[in-house]
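note to self: dont lose this again. the chain is below, predicted strucutre after it. 220 aa total, dont forget to put it in the shared folder this time
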Amino acid sequence: MKFKRINVDTVRCIVSETELNENGLQMDDFLQNDGKTEEFLRMIISRAEEEVGFHVQGGPLSVQVAVLPEHLLALTFSERPDHNMLSLLQGLKSMVESLTAGRQPENRQDTESDTLVGGFDKRIYILTFQDMDQIIAYAKSIVLEEPVVSSVYRLQNHGADKYYLIIERNGLGDKEICRVISASVEFLDSASADEGKVAFMKEHGVCILANDALEILQKL
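---
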């Protein structure tokens, strides 16, 4: 088996017909996606973690199957937990706007609590943008009441450059981090709190701005 990391969310495994046979599978059995393939897929995902560091975070996992020449099978696994995080950010934005306007958020009684959104307590947030103009527009739209540890990376994704703003919690209070992150919804493509992505970007991406990216961008 040969593994290739396509991007932070996607990995591809090339399997030979011989390897399928060794695992008690025929090519037709696998393509029909019957019960015999489930254990084999779990094994491949486990191997992908060992081979290329592909960590399944619990989000929806899709599998694409393609038959290649010379009796080879290409299995492409992709997990996109970003959608759940983006939904959380959208809900958070509505809550912050309600608090700012002095309205009581729906289904929320203790507005004086330090935690605005249950579970919104990640150490790091990765915001994905189409280009630097979007990041700059976002940076200029917020008021930073205290320093924010942030950096910008460029990484090729599906043949096109994507730009990633990494924001670290680093001691920020719940209300401040919620306010800063929620303001990004109008500008970003997707969001994640997967720390494994940060390690991948630092290894494969290009660091454009380090440590105090938001402050620098606000001055442009």
